[in-house]
Amino acid sequence: LLPPSALDLLVRLNIEYPMMFRVSSLSDPELATHCGVLEFLAEEGRAYLPSWLHLNEGECVRITYASLPKATYTKLKPQSTDFLAISNPRAVLEVELRKFACLTKGDIIAVEVRYFINTFLTYNDQLLEFLVMEVKPGSAVSIIECDMNVEFDAPEGYVEPNTNAATSSSDATSLPTGAAAEVVGSKTGGGFAAFSGAGHRLDGKSKASSSSLAEMDTTERSLPALTVNTNYTPGNLNFVR
């Protein structure tokens, strides 16, 4: 929030919209960042700045108008491994970054993230911080109505898993001696029988046993042989009315 006198001065100037401002420290002018403006409703001589700027209340700063280019690329570094619990971080940041007007290289921004933590529809609301490692095409860019590519660096405190240890442990895993001997014995001693398990009918009825199938085969074989009359000649069929 800025005082109304700042709006009166900016209206007289030939400036670009939306308005962006450079906020710098009076003691160290190189220590600066950028932000937009929400309203011009503050008291004269006062400015209300976002909490993520980490400024002390009553601290004197210099606020100047700045024209920033549209962002095309940014690289963010999460400051906590809680970032890994987010299933779709790009979708979350696409919504949360709409609350920001611009990004400055070296800044740490804070976004509120709500992510799913278990199967009982429980969500965790947490404030996550991201370090702006790189932005293009400049050191400070506007992110309002722009097409920006976002890349994530490894979170702070993240340890890469040891894949070599996992591979060696999986290679060392084997069947128990008794189970292995039983499998080998079933294939070598009694011979291997394919499809030796029991079957089930889809209609729920009991499956025919092997003996009943043998009886059906015997019945079919005992039927009389069919005789074909090859000298048959068609005749007339008369209906009496």
Automatic annotation (TrEMBL):
Gene3D superfamilies recorded? 3.10.330.10, Ubiquitin fusion degradation protein UFD1, N-terminal domain
Mind telling me which InterPro entries this protein's record contains?
Ufd1-like, Ufd1-like_Nn, UFD1_N1, UFD1_N2
Q: Which Pfam families match?
A: UFD1_N1 (PF03152), UFD1_N2 (PF24842)
| Single GO biological process annotation from the record | ubiquitin-dependent protein catabolic process
Its domain of life reads Eukaryota
Span of domain Ubiquitin fusion degradation protein UFD1 N-terminal subdomain: 1-69, 70-155
The record's Gene Ontology cellular component field reads: VCP-NPL4-UFD1 AAA ATPase complex
Alphabetically list the UniProt keywords: Ubl conjugation pathway
Q: Name one GO molecular function term.
A: polyubiquitin modification-dependent protein binding
Q: Tell me which family the UniProt entry assigns to this protein.
A: Belongs to the UFD1 family.
Q: Which PANTHER family match?
A: UBIQUITIN FUSION DEGRADATON PROTEIN 1 (PTHR12555), UBIQUITIN RECOGNITION FACTOR IN ER-ASSOCIATED DEGRADATION PROTEIN 1 (PTHR12555:SF13)
Protein name from the UniProt record = UFD1 protein
